[in-house]
Recover the amino acids of this structure.
């Protein structure tokens, strides 16, 4: 039996601007609300498409804890 993979093997950084674009995209196309951290996987896939091209990928969408003023600002673009 192989040992389970433990620890972080890699990560990517995404900007707040890209996460907010992902939040808008999710709202527009799926009607799901995600906070910045919840939209980060989609933001990363959009910012680094080579990481997901030609692969079957699951992006976890989580967290909808945005305050109304912040949500209004993000939606206004």
């Amino acid at each position: 039996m192989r040992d389970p993979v433990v620890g972080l093997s890699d990560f990517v950084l995404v900007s707040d601007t890209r996460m907010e674009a992902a939040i808008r995209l999710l709202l527009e196309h799926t009607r799901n609300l995600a906070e910045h951290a919840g939209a980060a996987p989609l933001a990363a896939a959009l910012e680094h498409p080579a990481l997901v091209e030609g692969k079957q990928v699951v992006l976890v969408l989580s967290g909808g804890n945005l305050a109304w003023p912040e949500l209004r600002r993000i939606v206004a673009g």
User: Anything to note?
Assistant: The mean pLDDT is 91.
